[in-house]
Design brief:
Layout: H1 5-18, H2 20-25, E1 28-31, E2 39-42, E3 47-50, E4 53-56, E5 61-64, E6 71-75, E7 81-88, E8 93-100, E9 103-106, E10 121-126, E11 132-139, E12 142-149, E13 154-158, E14 166-171, E15 177-184, E16 189-196, E17 202-204, E18 217-221, E19 226-231, E20 234-239, E21 244-247, E22 256-262, E23 268-275, E24 278-284, E25 293-294, H3 295-300, E26 315-319, E27 325-329, E28 339-343, E29 359-362, E30 369-385, E31 390-404, E32 411-419, E33 422-430
Antiparallel strand pairs: 1-28, 2-3, 3-4, 4-5, 6-7, 7-8, 8-9, 10-11, 11-12, 12-13, 14-15, 15-16, 16-17, 18-19, 19-20, 20-21, 22-23, 23-24, 24-25, 26-27, 27-28, 29-30, 30-31, 30-32, 32-33
């Protein structure tokens, strides 16, 4: 099984210098005991949403949602929430709804929809800026997505122009919706990862390539327009700004894997299918290596044991925008599964202010040239896109070096500096 060797070496050194208690106190796993407490989302404060409750990581307390809401699905850093409200309690008809500044608001239906004839709008995501809400909808037998603008209160159904079924699972601040679109393949339908832009255009990922297997999707998108999902049983990251599609290996011992969520700083989580209806959570970031790892192994390397019944973490469904909280649920029927949440602190990203001040870098943001200075000799420097693609590397035998970013597109990059056996990772913005 793959080990995070550089990270482990750095942590061992840190434990020698500062003691294990301080290191382990920063990383924590909490597994809930309440049946049906599976998580749907989490924000930067460790504020999570299950199906019927809110959750605070610090206090480890579940609190029931408001009485005018029925279920919750997604939360952002403003603690604005997307979910469901009751439309007709006697007929048990639900409608999409959202909580804005503590007040729940109904979304309702379009004039063409008839909720009494099984037309529905199923909520999945709210954008970080609270402007957009998205999900799946139907009008009769036509299934697609929906996009609701909380500022204009406009609700539109986003149906595939070719008349096939589609769905939307997430939306970012730019109004880009991600999910899937069906395409006939001669033996039924074929779900193809797709995103929709505000001009109404659908785009397939990867462009010009149809999958072989019939279940594929984009599960999430961040506000840097980086998307994650699964394509032909493999997890992938797609960076729209550079049009870079990166497919990753299925972890050892698994038959398939998918990415479900990406933070604003490029930490990705998901799950691997390790048996029949048995999953184990995975995590990816360039600072951990070039392939996804089992989250339980990352925790074990840091002295945190997974205390679930089967020793697995099941499904990682969401990561907070800052990349510090991961939420999901254990194996078992999802409606009854117990939830869990992990606090990673700065484990994955390492440091934006480099630990022990051994390395400094400037300017950030960078336009052309970035300078790196270290107390020890710099051996090598690698630069990666937020999707994990290495764009260039340089070798050095000095305590300072320069990186030329002038040929790179604007966006977020990760710079990995190897110096005297230690590895530091820094987030850099190219303007």
């Amino acid at each position: 099984m793959r080990k995070i060797t550089f990270l482990t070496k750095s942590l061992i050194l840190a434990m020698v210098l500062f003691g294990t208690a301080e290191i382990h106190a920063q990383i924590e796993l909490k597994v809930l005991t309440e049946m049906g407490s599976r998580f749907n989302d989490v924000n930067d404060s460790g504020f999570g949403v299950t199906v019927y409750d809110y959750y605070d990581f610090e206090t480890n307390v579940l609190s029931p949602i408001e009485t005018d809401a029925f279920m919750v699905q997604s939360v952002n850093n403003d603690e604005n929430v997307a979910g469901f409200m009751m439309y007709d309690e006697d007929e048990f008809i639900l409608q999409a709804g959202y909580r804005m500044e503590g007040v729940w608001n109904p979304i309702g239906f379009t004039p063409e929809q008839d909720p009494y004839d099984y037309d529905e709008n199923t909520t999945y995501g709210i954008s970080p800026n609270s402007k957009y809400i998205t999900g799946q909808s139907n009008q009769g037998l036509n299934y697609g997505g929906f996009l609701y603008d909380t500022e204009t209160e406009e609700l539109i159904l986003t149906m595939d122009p070719e008349g096939e079924a589609s769905a939307s699972y997430a939306v970012n601040d730019n109004g880009i919706m991600v999910g899937w679109v069906d395409r006939p393949d001669g033996g039924g339908t074929l779900r193809v990862p797709a995103y929709r832009t505000l001009d109404g255009q659908y785009h397939f990922v990867p462009e010009g390539q149809m999958p072989v297997y019939n279940v594929n999707t984009i599960n999430d998108i961040n506000s840097n327009n980086v998307m994650v999902g699964d394509f032909d049983l493999h997890p992938f990251v797609y960076d729209l700004s550079s049009e870079t599609f990166t497919s990753f290996d299925i972890p050892d011992g698994a038959d398939a894997a998918a990415f479900t969520s990406i933070s604003e700083n490029g930490v990705v989580v998901g799950f691997a299918e390790v048996g029949f209806q048995i999953r184990d959570a995975i995590i990816y970031h360039p600072s951990l290596g070039d392939q996804p790892l089992y989250l339980k192994d990352v925790l074990a390397d840091n002295g945190v044991a997974v205390n679930t019944d089967d020793g697995l973490l099941g499904t990682a469904i969401a990561i907070s925008p800052n990349g510090k909280y991961v939420a999901g649920w254990v194996n078992g029927p999802p409606p009854f599964a117990e939830g869990w949440m992990v606090y990673l602190d700065d484990l994955v990203l390492g440091t934006n202010s480099v630990s022990q001040n051994t390395i400094s870098f400037y300017p950030n943001p960078v336009i052309d040239v970035m300078n790196i200075n270290a107390k020890e000799t710099i051996d090598s420097v690698e630069v990666y896109t937020i999707a994990g693609q290495r764009v260039f590397n340089v070798t050095s035998n000095s305590t300072n070096t320069q990186l030329d970013f002038s040929a790179l597109s604007s966006g977020v990059y990760f710079v990995k500096v190897s110096s005297s056996g230690a590895l530091e990772t820094m987030k850099v913005v190219k303007q």
